[in-house]
Amino acid sequence: MWPYHPDLLATPVPRYTSFPTAAEFGEIDAAAYADAISTATGDVSLYVHIPFCDKICWYCGCNTAAANKAQRLATYLDALHREIALLAAQLPASARVRRIAFGGGSPNALNPVDFIRLFDALVLNFPLEEPVVSIELDPRTLTDEWAPVLGAIGATRASMGVQTFSPKLQEAIGRIQPMAMIAHGVELLRKAGVTSMNFDLMYGLPGQTRDDVTDALSLATSFGADRIALFGYAHVPHLIARQRRIDGGALPGAEERFRMAELGHAQLTAGGYAAVGFDHFAKPGDPLAQAAASGRLHRNFQGFTDDAAPVLLGLGASAIGSFPTLLAQNEKNSGRYRMLLSQNRLPVALGKVRSADDRRRGAVIEELLCHGRARVCRAMLEQAWDRLAPYVEAGLCEVEGEYLAIAEHARPYARSIAAAFDPYRQHSPRRFSSAI
Ligand code: SF4
């Protein structure tokens, strides 16, 4: 059994999809962003954000809006096309795009013809070199016409937001998707050539039981999911207004959430999936599991990844780009995003210059989360010791020479242990999700 220490999980901690985290972002100017782009040589990845969904789920914390106004989608796409042209024109000739990820929102909230035009714009403007193409999809709007689209863009990786198969839980979170819909989505993805299919699932939902979690995982594996991301639902209605529709009184308690995560880990690893990081699972042949096994796993804004590119360019409202010395986020508000692009200005709004110390600490945090082990210099260890000591005393991690190692049974504590190396957290208000 995983040891349960509620006191060591009590402080909300970031998910560390970047370091410094987005909570540290402040205003940055376009010149700093242009400078960073001008240094992007070698492998580069693209992330394209589509902030629309056909139906908005009550639990969702993403930057997305209802895709019910054709004019709104059209003007957004005009701006996105303009951003693609502007950004690509500034990229050095030595850069090569090896990955393209479409996320949101739901990329399939777009009309398939518009989506193909968008992909064509990437092809025409960026130096693509046999990119790995991945896409997030909403099974509720995955119509048959998307199969040829996915085939045409060469998407081999797709992620479907499933969350739960239980009709009663689907009702409780405002996301209705009957089993036949998932089955249809799976068939469509396979027919389109997707070889790595991810299901997002959640625990900690209102009224959810351990049996519900077990059933969801069994169904996901029976559908042949190559990857499963098992997230704890983060209920923060004071930050995300749409979550006010969810019955907070029906949410499982902290220990129950912990046991659900433990049960998920036990069930999936017993079923042959490799545990990747603290909340992902993958079949041993999947590139994510292989990256984890060979020490090539990374963490970026999309979660755990086998993408090793040092530069990620974010396109679209709220998209975040990552460079060795800078994190840069586009304007979140689609009106302002469009306005900046109408003036032929890159729509960057927020970000953080990464100091040498940020980069060193970011590397330690990423290593701990991806591999459960990181080389830590003496000075950094001493600075972190007050926060680290309770975890060491509880047997959740230990110092082995120059390394700090997280115990196998301490995966749920990984974010909290990593946070000991995050100097920004000492002064930050509690605005993150629960550690489990
Ligand atoms: S489909 Fe996904 S992105 Fe869209 S509202 Fe639901 S959870 Fe959020």
What does this structure look like?
The chain is α/β, with parallel strands linked by helices and about 425 residues long. The protein has helices at about 5-10, 30-40, 70-90, 110-125, 145-155, 165-175, 180-190, 210-220, 255-270, 285-295, 335-340, 355-370, 380-395, 415-420, and strands at about 25, 40-50, 50-55, 65, 95-105, 130-135, 155-165, 195-205, 225-230, 275, 280, 300, 305, 310-315, 320-325, 325-330, 350-355, 375, 395-400, 405. The strands form five sheets. A nine-stranded mixed β-sheet has the order 10-11-9-8-7-6-5-2-14, sandwiched between helices. Strands 1-17-16-15 form a four-stranded antiparallel β-sheet, covered by helices on one side. Strand 10 and strand 11 (about 280) form a beta hairpin. Helix 3 runs parallel beside helix 4 (about 110-125) and helix 5 packs parallel to helix 7. The structure holds iron/sulfur cluster. Iron/sulfur cluster binds near residues 57, 104, 105, 106 and 161.
Rounded mean pLDDT score: 95
**Using only CA atoms, what is the Rg?**
21 Å
Sum up the overall morphology in one term. Answer: globular
Structural class: alpha/beta
Task: Please describe the biggest sheet, giving its number of strands, its sense, and whether it closes into a barrel.
Answer: 9 strands, mixed
Low-confidence stretches: none
Total number of strands: 20
Spatial gap, N to C terminus: 15 Å
| Number of helical elements | 14
Attached small molecules: iron/sulfur cluster
Beta strand % = 15-25%
The residue fraction in helices comes out at 25-40%
Order of strands, widest sheet: 10-11-9-8-7-6-5-2-14
